[in-house]
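User: What would this chain look like folded?
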Amino acid sequence: MKRYCIIILAAFTFIGCKDGIDDQSKRNDENCWWVDAKTGKGRWIPIGDHRTVKSGRYTLFYRNGKIFETGKLVEGKNVDTIFNYDKNGHLLEYVLLQQDTTNYYILTDGPKVYFYQNGGKKAEGIAKNHQIGDKWRTYYKNGRISWPKIIIME
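Assistant: Here's the prediction, encoded as structure tokens.
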């Protein structure tokens, strides 16, 4: 009897998670987990399906299934704070969005590498004082350098 209860419980857990944020088949760079602000209900939507989302919270994923970015939309625009993660799902930086200002805060100083959702390199450089440091380089999605720049920090 105990064995049957465990099997039934495991089946309900698996079925209940199928369409949730933990659905590994959808945690990739093609889908977004969306929680609607009005209903509070979450669902998967394809990336780029902006017609169906206006206000709520989103979670984007890397191709490997780890979290790429989380944030909040109001009337289709990012508000409050955007959280960006590395390819292992660890918080890398957050972006504070204010009415006329955007502030980036990198959690730790030192060498940094940012990636696109598909896993390709997006940017690399050295963070100093929780900001972009002296040397920074960005890349196009095809891997070519788009912006080599030396930044003078005051």
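The two ends are 70 Å apart (CA to CA). If you want, I can go into more detail on any region.
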